[in-house]
Design goal:
With 400 residues, this protein is mostly helical. The protein has a single domain, classed as MFS general substrate transporter like domains (Growth Hormone, Chain: A). The chain is 83% helix and 0% strand. It contains 16 helices and no strands. α10 runs antiparallel to α16. The longest helix is centred in the middle third of the chain and has 56 residues. The N and C termini lie far apart (45 Å).
Length: 400
């Protein structure tokens, strides 16, 4: 394999950003199809919740295996598997005309990890000091995909129906597959084929190889912080549609404008702000800042009474959330050998799937029992506790 030049690496990273934006676009196209198809098939809110939980569990199980697969066979092979799974997913969605088929079409999601796949390529090809900024740019792609996918999905579903929209998304998956095969090198890690042959054949499904990463210094702590501090935000996100309908009394069109505002704010933060912050401050300082800011956002959420006030809170909310997610992913990839970055990013994806799986249950209980303000209080309490822990750990390290 010929060595990658700096120009070639930059080209591959740019194409990876395009692939990420297309993948997220298809994800949000699916969000415009599935709820209406489920309603047409007679799903109530409870059964739709079961459907979403099914996806969370499936991706929770598939994340670490997908990451391990990328480490063994290369990120290009992993992205090809993800694209093919996405194609089957959308074809089955187009064919879904019963409750059984609608659940069945979710099974390929076990291999659908486009965002972690693109993160793996960026992590492999970017220098340590530029990794956080490079990963943040994927967040910019997420914002583009969210806006584009929501618009396309809504337009196509209204004009041509859910079936044709699903087939269009399946075609988009094949376009992603072609881009991966043409532009992404077979191996993006710096290791040779001898290293590959030394790995045991069953290493993709070797749980010990995955757990081994948690023993590296700082990895288990960072994962614990990621789970605990990330839970309140995920609970709020999964309940967001309930807030907009019941608390803010927004109509679907107004809700679309609010989501577009979210996307624009995220694009600015991840495309412009985070890169400048990572140049000036260390990962640990930014992690501490993001958790501290998250606690203040929790207090602000308690005081929000209308959508205009919420729009002001969105800016620090997205800033803290974006910095936290990017920095923790960056810290984890730097804490393990380069040959294992795929597995650790797969574990990160599983953390998100885990939180989305348990989030609806927790969110529903809090909303029904204690009301909207409880989400702000929970976020403040959890983030303030994690902030205190990180601050004490940092001072202890400085003394040692």
């Amino acid at each position: 394999m010929e060595p990658l030049t700096a120009a070639k690496i930059q080209k591959v990273i740019y194409v990876t950003y395009i692939i990420s934006a297309l993948d997220i676009t298809l994800l949000f196209v699916q969000f415009s199809v599935t709820p209406y198809l489920a309603r047409r098939l007679g799903f109530d809110t409870l059964w739709f919740g079961y459907l979403q939980t099914t996806v969370g569990v499936i991706q929770l199980l598939g994340g670490p295996v997908f990451g391990r697969f990328a480490d063994v066979f290369g990120a290009r092979a992993a992205l090809c598997v993800s694209s093919l799974a996405s194609f089957v997913y959308f074809v089955l969605l187009a064919a879904a005309d019963s409750t059984f088929l609608l659940f069945l079409h979710k099974l390929p999601a076990v291999f659908m990890h486009g965002l972690p796949g693109t993160q793996m390529i960026v992590a492999d090809l970017s220098a340590n000091e530029k990794r956080a900024d490079a990963l943040a740019k994927l967040g910019l792609c997420f914002g583009i995909g969210m806006i584009t996918g929501s618009s396309l999905g809504g337009t196509f579903s209204t004009r041509y129906g859910e079936k044709l929209t699903a087939y269009m998304a399946a075609g988009g998956s094949l376009i992603i597959l072609m881009l991966v095969l043409i532009f992404i090198p077979k191996y993006t890690k710096i290791h040779n084929k001898i290293d590959k042959n030394d790995k045991e054949a069953g290493s993709v499904f070797n749980l010990g190889e995955i757990i081994r990463l948690l023993k590296f210094p700082g990895v288990a702590t960072t994962f614990t912080v990621k789970i605990i501090s990330g839970l309140p935000s995920v609970v709020f996100q999964v309940m967001f549609s309930v807030f907009t309908m019941n608390f803010f009394q927004l109509q679907p069109q107004q809700n679309g404008y609010l989501l577009a505002y979210f996307g624009v704010v995220q694009m600015v933060i991840q495309g412009v702000v985070i890169g400048r912050l990572t140049v000036r401050y260390s990962d640990k300082s930014l992690q501490l800042f993001s958790v501290g800011l998250s606690s203040l956002v929790g207090l602000a959420q308690v005081l929000v009474t209308n959508v205009f006030q919420f729009c002001f809170v969105v800016v620090p909310m997205m800033l803290s959330l974006s910095i936290f997610n990017v920095i923790t992913d960056s810290m984890l990839t730097k804490s393990v050998p380069a040959s294992d970055t795929g597995t650790v990013l797969g574990l990160c994806a599983s953390v998100q799937s885990l939180l989305r799986t348990i989030g609806p249950t927790i969110g529903g209980f809090l909303y029904e029992t204690y009301g909207v303000a409880s989400f702000g209080y929970i976020q403040f309490t959890v983030s303030a506790t994690v902030f205190s822990f990180l601050l004490m750990s940092r001072r202890k390290s400085a003394h040692n």
